[in-house]
Structure formats: structure tokens, C-alpha cells
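Re-run with default settings, no changes from the original entry. Doing this only to confirm the output is reproducible before filing.
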Amino acid sequence: MAGAPAAFDFVAPAHWRAIDFISDLHLGAALPRTFDACAAHLRTTPADAVFILGDLFELWVGDEMRERAFERRCVDALAGAARRLTIGFMAGNRDFLVGADLMCDSGMIRLPDPTRLDAWGRVVLLSHGDALCLADRDYQAFRRQVRDAAWQSAFLARPLAERLAVAAEVRSASAARQRFDGDAAADIDRDEAARWLAAAGASTLVHGHTHRPGSEPVGPGLQRHVLSDWDLDRGLRAEVLRLTRDGFERIAPAS
């Protein structure tokens, strides 16, 4: 069995008071209320950092997208927030093609998956979560393919219009969407999660991807916090997981 992936280390400055975790916003022009809630939270949160653990965007097929009208609004909101707090971004299964140009324009910092966060003496392992859904073998094979540097280079060399057409096909074809997102019934493998935590010297995992917000043990002395997906256009769900010196709490987005 392969070893657990090496985690990137992020040490929170001692003067920080709070870190917000969000994921699975799936921002797109068709979800204006969800975008507004995200922008308002970035603009008004009292936290010192917001860590976005994947699937910020509904789809991202290359950084040329940042010149489109809606995506430019997203970049402007992120850049404005990044001038007053730290914005961390971890790629998800929807936005793994976010590149250096978007990172530069938005002011975000890259968080590799997984990231080992050391904050106020507490060690927390951060992940989008999709890499831990081992039972979904079809998705894991697809994930390995699209995370390959050669595949990404070849895909990004295609015209933007062609890449957007592929994205439209994924949206409309249920089989393609399932391959892209994974089986909705799949959850993380708890034994693998425990191995990741042990390798990182952490007892707490924070992840998204599954759209099943909640907190529960994943093994003896091990805990996970699953982030909420956001949808304020078709549903009424949006939640922030906040970490302070006192621990974790779930809150509504700031407005």
C-alpha cells in the first residue's frame, strides 16, 4: 500500500484570532445569491484568514476564464479581500485547473492537498476530500488522469471555446458528471483518513467534497469536520466552519 501523501505545512501567525474554512460553493453566473453571500463574507468576516478547500467554482477550464464577466467579479471580490486578510485556495475536483495567473490576480495563496495547519498549538489536516473516496474506483482513475501534468498541458492547449464545450457536456451528461464529481454515495475511506492523520501528526481532519456537513469521529481519538456546500439560489444552505483558540464552531456567513 502506498504511503500517505506528504502534507504541506502552514503555520498560522500567533496574532491570528480566527480562520474560516469554506468549500464547495460552485460559483457560477447561474447562482447570483450564492456569489453575493460569498462576496459579503469575504468583505466582512472578522477572521484573519479564509481557507477555501476546493470547488470554489462550478467549473474552471483555464485561467482565460478570469476575463469573462462573472469570473472577473469573482476575481475582484477575492482580490479585495486578499488586501486585508489571507485567502488560501486548495483545488477541488471542479477547479483543479486554476493556474498561476488566477492566483496572482486574486491574491490567493496556494494550499496543496493535503495541508497540515498548525494554529495555536492545534494541528489540523486540510483536504478537499475527493482523494480519500477510495471506494469510488472509477472516479479515482479519472482523477489520476486529469491531475497528470501531460494531460493538463494538452487540454489547456485546446482553444477556450472547445474546453468550454467539454464543460457544457459534463454539465448535461449525467454519466460524465458522475465521473467528474465521483459517486454521490461515496464517502471518505476512514482507514485511509486515519493513515493521513497519523502521517501528519494530526488528530483532526477538515474536508469538503461530500456535501454532508457534520462532525464525527473517524477513529479512536480522531475527528473530522465536513464542510457545507453552498447554495442560496436553489436551496438555503451556506455555512462557515471557524477555528479559534477555543476550537471549532459552525456559523452562518457574515453579511
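The longest strand covers residues 122-127. The domain at 16-251 is CATH 3.60.21.10 (Purple Acid Phosphatase; chain A, domain 2).
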